[in-house]
Design brief:
The complex is a heterodimer of chains A (255) and B (254).
Chain A lengths: L11 E12 L2 E12 L3 E5 L6 H8 L7 E6 L2 E2 L7 E4 L11 H5 L8 H14 L15 H14 L4 E5 L7 H17 L3 E6 L2 H7 L2 E5 L6 E6 L11 H14 L6
Parallel strand pairs in A: 3-8, 3-9, 6-7, 7-8
Antiparallel strand pairs in A: 1-2, 1-4, 4-5, 9-10
Chain B lengths: L1 H28 L7 H13 L3 H32 L1 H14 L8 H8 L4 H24 L3 H9 L4 H39 L4 H10 L4 H26 L12
Helix pairs in contact in B: 2-10, 3-4, 3-6, 3-8, 3-9, 5-6, 6-8, 7-8, 8-9, 8-10, 9-10
The chains are: A alpha/beta (255), B mainly alpha (254).
């Protein structure tokens, strides 16, 4: 099932070597090793509470691992960095700033004209024209998520970390947001680590799906999604890939 | 429309009723000391003609402005700092918790020793009365800021100073503003009490002086009503500040 070769000869962007995490007696992560290549979209897939968010927080520099190391561009990660932005569920949008203010948040060092130009560009890219002056509480969940993504992209990071970004949205909006995300990423190629517990989401979005075990989380298998975008969700290959992951996790295909 | 008429007519009705009851009680009891509403209105007129009303009101307001202003200037940064630094909070909190329940009135003798009779004593008392609620609400406001915001700010590479100014302060602002409004009410309560003892001008002084120099209870009640009306205006102004669009985000509940 797993495709034999790495997708391209792109250089390794994020390298995890033997990453471990324990809180006292609780072992959360055990010996996680993974290479993410430049421009790749890798989904970390696992059941809720398995430690995949912990792993993302370690890669993002918000947590220090108990063992092992994370290197980005060959450099050990020492903390959060504006070149690598962590996107939360839409709750990370600042409620006291307008859509414009939120998107401009990381751009305070730039001259006003340049800032305005960048903000306008990302407002358009995420489809929030007409809502520039709106406050987050006037927006729907999906729109707030767009603001978060735009705020992250505006600082031109090379890496995005997405932690179940669409988890709080309704299922219709979630589907729309996935194709929106892919459209946006076509315009601006990034290296992406995407945490989800949604198997369909991972197969729809990822170049590779890292299937993780329950706690302590380890990498069970890495599944290459050899489907071109746009992906046909009823194609045989899509269903095959999805079912193989279901099987890997040990779930039946029928309810 | 109906609701608007009611919101004007009903309070007016109660107001008229209270004044009528007051007037009737004065008449029925035949008191020679307590003034009727009409006497109080005449008393207000007398204060106006003698040129005392505005200067006294002005003196009280200036004392509140200076003492309260100093409390805001010191209390908000101190509260932010205490909310930000757990170690500082651990060290300083016991002192704050001990001093906080002491009524500013209890400080009057100390204030007089420190500043003598004059403007500084009531200003100091107003400052003390307003300081603690401002510090404590600001500290709590900072403590309630979702860690998510701080993480996002760190991710965008903000320095500590920027973090306070661009995230902590705006995120805690709704709570800080509630604290500022409560503190303003307290400041207005305290200035009247302080003026009764520590100075010879202002609305508090007006009340105590009217009583001491000839049992002029019409002027006492006139002074009380002035205090009430001014307090109402101050609170109204503070509430209007809370409604400003950029600040309103935290006041969803009401």
């Amino acid at each position: 099932m797993v495709a034999a070769a790495a997708p391209t000869a792109a250089p390794v962007k994020i390298g995890l070597r033997g990453v471990q995490m324990r809180y006292g007696a609780v072992e959360v992560l055990r010996d996680v090793s993974l290479d993410v290549r430049e421009g790749e979209l890798v989904c970390l897939l696992g059941p809720s509470g398995c430690g995949k968010s912990t792993l993302l927080n370690i890669v993002g520099g918000f947590l220090e691992p108990s063992g092992g190391e994370v290197r980005i561009d060959g450099e050990p990660v020492r903390g959060p960095d504006p070149r690598r932005i962590f996107v939360f569920q839409e709750r990370g949008v600042f409620p006291w700033l307008t859509v414009e203010g939120n998107i401009a948040f990381g751009l305070s060092k730039l001259a006003a004209a340049e800032r305005a130009q960048i903000v306008a560009h990302y407002v358009e890219l995420v489809g929030l024209e007409g809502f520039e002056r709106a406050f987050p509480d006037e927006l729907s969940g999906g729109m707030k998520q767009r603001v978060e993504v735009a705020r992250a992209l505006a600082v031109k990071p090379d890496v995005l970390y997405l932690d179940e970004p669409f988890g709080a949205l309704d299922s219709i909006t979630r589907l729309q947001m996935r194709s929106e995300l892919l459209r946006i990423l076509q315009a601006e190629k990034k290296t992406i680590l995407f945490v989800t517990h949604d198997i369909d989401e991972s197969v729809q979005l990822a170049d590779r799906v890292v299937v993780m075990s329950t706690r302590p989380a380890t990498v069970r298998r890495i599944v290459e999604i050899d489907l071109a975008h746009p992906r046909d969700l009823s194609s045989r290959r899509y269903l095959e890939l999805r079912d193989s992951i279901l099987e890997e996790i040990g779930l039946a295909h029928k309810i | 429309m109906r609701a608007r008429i009611e919101s004007i007519v009903l309070p007016l009705l109660v107001g008229v009723l209270v004044v009528a009851l007051w007037s009737a009680s004065v008449r029925w009891t035949g008191t020679k000391v307590f003034p009727s509403p009409l006497q109080v209105v005449r008393g207000l007129g007398e204060l106006w003609r003698r040129g005392l009303l505005l200067p006294y009101l002005g003196d009280s307001l200036v004392r509140v402005a200076v003492g309260y202003g100093a409390a805001v200037a010191l209390g908000v940064p101190l509260g932010l700092w205490l909310g930000w630094s757990r170690n500082l909070a651990t060290a300083v909190n016991p002192v704050i918790q001990l001093l906080r329940p002491i009524s500013p009135i209890a400080w009057i003798p100390v204030a007089i020793v420190l500043f003598g009779i004059g403007n500084l004593a009531p200003i100091f008392l107003v400052f003390l009365g307003a300081l603690f609620p401002i510090v404590v609400t600001t500290q709590n406001g900072v403590g309630a800021v979702p860690p998510m915001y701080l993480r996002a700010a760190r991710n965008f590479g903000l320095s500590s100073g920027q973090m306070v100014r661009r995230v902590l302060l705006p995120a805690a602002l709704p709570q800080i503003l509630s604290g500022l409004r409560i503190a303003l009410g307290i400041a207005w309560l305290v200035v009247v009490a302080a003026e009764m003892i520590a100075v010879d001008s202002g609305l508090g002084y007006l009340i105590i002086d009217a009583r001491n120099a000839g049992k002029r209870y019409d002027l006492v009640v006139a002074g009380m009503l002035l205090i009430g009306a001014t307090g109402l205006v101050l609170d109204f102004a503070a509430r209007r500040c809370e409604r400003l669009r950029a600040l309103r985000w935290g006041f969803r509940a009401d």
